[in-house]
Amino acid sequence: LRPVQRILMAPGPTDVDPSVLRVLSAPVLGHTDPEFFSILADIGTGLRQTFQTQNPLTLALTSSGTGAMEACLANVIEPGDRVVVGVAGYFAERLALIAERLGANVVRVTAPWGSPVDPGDLRRALGDASTKVLALVHGETSTGVLQPLQDMGKLAHEHGALLLVDTVPTLAGIDVQVDAWDIDMCYSGSQKCISAPPGLALVTFGDRAVAAMKARRTPVSFYFDLQMLERYWYGDHMYHHTPSISLYYALREALRLIKEEGIAERIERHRMAQTLLLDLLAEIGLEPMVEPDSRLVTVTTVRIPEGVDDLSVRRALLQDYGIEITGGLGELKGRIWRIGLMGYSCQERNVLLVTSALKAVLSRQRLGTREAAISAKPPARASQAL
Amino acid sequence: LRPVQRILMAPGPTDVDPSVLRVLSAPVLGHTDPEFFSILADIGTGLRQTFQTQNPLTLALTSSGTGAMEACLANVIEPGDRVVVGVAGYFAERLALIAERLGANVVRVTAPWGSPVDPGDLRRALGDASTKVLALVHGETSTGVLQPLQDMGKLAHEHGALLLVDTVPTLAGIDVQVDAWDIDMCYSGSQKCISAPPGLALVTFGDRAVAAMKARRTPVSFYFDLQMLERYWYGDHMYHHTPSISLYYALREALRLIKEEGIAERIERHRMAQTLLLDLLAEIGLEPMVEPDSRLVTVTTVRIPEGVDDLSVRRALLQDYGIEITGGLGELKGRIWRIGLMGYSCQERNVLLVTSALKAVLSRQRLGTREAAISAKPPARASQAL
Questions:
Q1: Is residue B328 classed exposed, middle or buried when 0-12, 13-18 and 19+ CB atoms within 10 A define those classes?
Q2: What is the model's pTM?
Q3: What pLDDT digit, counting tens, does each position of B179-230 carry?
Q4: Residue A134 buriedness (CB in 10 A; 0-12 / 13-18 / 19+)
Q5: What's the gap in Å between the CA of A324 and the closest CA on chain B?
Q6: Which residues of A touch B326 (CB under 8 A)?
Q7: CB 3.0-4.6 Å disulfide test: which of A45, B178, B272, B371 passes with B51?
Q8: Which value, in Å, is the radius of gyration of the alpha carbons in chain B?
Q9: How many interface pairs between A and B have CB atoms less than 8 angstroms apart?
Q10: A64, B241: Cβ pair inside 8 Å?
Q11: Minimal C-alpha gap between B120 and chain A (Å)
Q12: Beta strand pairing status for A336-340 and B299-303?
């Protein structure tokens, strides 16, 4: 195996700090080893700091972020429950789909892709009906839009609903305050602003959510049963399933790096990187899709200029320079590029590189030449022999 | 992070070959990178060789083996379906529980823990009722019993049922022939005889199972939706979720090592290791729990002698020698030890070590001394600085 060395500027996974990559190779511990439980405890502490919460039920699942979506919904929803979802992008629609598969009565409150969902619309949808969950996506990776969360906890609770928030591309890159904002259930992934490898999902449940989970009458998915997982992590360590030990080493190290940097400093780094990115993109005639007020800092969506072929540009970036950015999903396919600046990938040199590489590729396309200046070479490979 | 260097002789996870540990630290690729799809294709080929099947739908999930249990059952079972489970241990009971949570009408065919389930009892339970799935555990990790699978495919199909087989502790350590034995759905984990790190679940579905999956009318778990996963792996690579990239590197390398060794040679290595283990255990007065005919080669269950304290012996093995073995689950708690000899952990030197360490610890306990001869030292730590 000699995987190429990419520069990952898609909306995740990101490049991973060498110190995080290194701990992945540590010897595997058993899942009931006291040393491993001390690692889990460290992760719990690090996650609480990152989510800005005191919630005891805060842990990492052996699954992707999509697994966390399913875990959060599955543990509280029962067939027939009403769920209001703010939908203005691919991942919010996924939340709605998962809730429907779980038997929920889903009400979608929509907005055009590229705008946040209107709080007034959400209030009207909650209306007088008994609603179990209000679900919102804080950062919509598919559109590059930030959904404001002010007063959303209050709104949900006034209507007797739990507030569920997806912070997959925002946690540790943009301010996320689970306790101060009254979020009942919050999840994220390991591979975005946390910058650990993909494969772990981060979940925190507050008191209201725990009460709803315990009050349910119908069975929950065994694999995603958060009560059993909490017992394994924080109770008598009763076996539930064998977690992906090595990824927990990496997550612990990634959380340590976040603490070392400081959450406020990290958020500022992400903000400055996007400012520079937008400046340099403007210089080569590329415009952001989203209005300044609604822009997601960590994933920037850029309109593809008229006459430019999405796929051939991205292929050239990948093949000639080893740079990964992503195209649009769903209705935005072929119309936008998505550039992620998250975690370890969020570096000034990457901003300089992606913009100058885009400039070079777009120039070549205008001139009708297809090859990079130094085209005979394969993409840069990892220097270490594997 | 400086995790201790254990010698893992519990029934999983196992120690991991250094070449597999090393690839874990390779740079992360994106989940839509052509290089990553070529790794997935290699894994598919390696899994088919290991499962001894031609099934196109053969892949690895980002979850533990318990996730694979749930995935297999969830994709074919609909509420009210009849499922017959052969239950003579903890993991078979888990299969039954998961099926029940999915709304199945579960019929347990039991046998005493320590014996296989009787084929005649299974035939009688299938009877004339319409049954969707006959589920069996090939190697019951909790008891150390091998369930014979001869004619089980035929039996299931005569009754119109699909045969589901758990091969978590057997695949790549004991003969498993998915096609020749007419198994419709089969799963395993990455961390047993495959000897990759934990966190991936291995699944293969034959034609009958695929047909049943496609014919279902009720929704399936989004995360475990095998049709979406198959499309991501082998179809147009439509995004489903972000897999744990690094673990797939490791699985690919572990499967390469299996091919290099040869399946037959690997099976023989596991057989010889248990023979030596039982000989050396007998020399120190430790007797196997299971009759020779039913013994699982890869996990050996040993009766704890009268008057010996389970926990203090295992704690001494772990603290003084860094050796992990496991105690009994459920009704066997405190009554047996379980010693795994799987994959990279299945080495003659480990057999010599665990038996001589057990001898030393048991002697100390008889003499009423608690300390190891060289007790001041901490357990051996990994030599590499992490």
A1: buried
A2: 0.96
A3: 999 999 999 999 999 999 999 999 999 999 999 999 999 999 999 999 999 9
A4: buried
A5: 8
A6: 32
A7: B178
A8: 21
A9: 231
A10: yes
A11: 30
A12: unpaired
